[in-house]
Amino acid sequence: MKKFAVAAALLSAVVATPALAAEGGEGRVEVRGGLITGNGIDEGTLGVAAGYDFDLGSAAFVGGEIAGDKVLIDGANVQFSAGARAGAKVGANGKLYATGGYTFGDIDDPYVGAGYQHKLGQNIYGKVEYRHQFINNFGDFDSFVAGVGFAF
Question: Which structural domains are found in the chain, ordered by start?
Answer without folding.
Answer: 2-9+27-151 (2.40.160.20)
